[in-house]
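Re: beginner question about structure tokens

> Can someone show what the tokenized structure looks like for a real chain? I only ever see the sequence side.

Sure, here's an example I had lying around. Input first:
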Amino acid sequence: MDRTCEVCNSNFRGATKTKYCSVLCREVALSIKKQIFTDEDIAYVILLNPGCGMSRLRKEFAKLLKLKKQKGGPTNTRILGVCDYYKSEKGLDLYAILQDPDYLQ
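And the corresponding structure tokens:
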């Protein structure tokens, strides 16, 4: 059956349920679906929860998603990437805010 790839819009021959023309297009689609939060969302949640630490921050994202487990939220690598970006580009050390012991309970 002739299909159109949902990522690159190329025509291909595939089964009825096939959405992507290649493994690469499938991986691109899955990575986009995993990015529920923007970098600004991550920075905002860090600023709202100073001193909470990485593990608790991921739990806060899970609460926002109304999930029982920490699935679907940003990974530690993505959170650290956002922290690095804000520190180098905007001069705001989000990681220091996230790990600030003055706010620990």
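Each token stands for a local structural state, so reading them left to right follows the chain. The chain has a mean pLDDT of 84.
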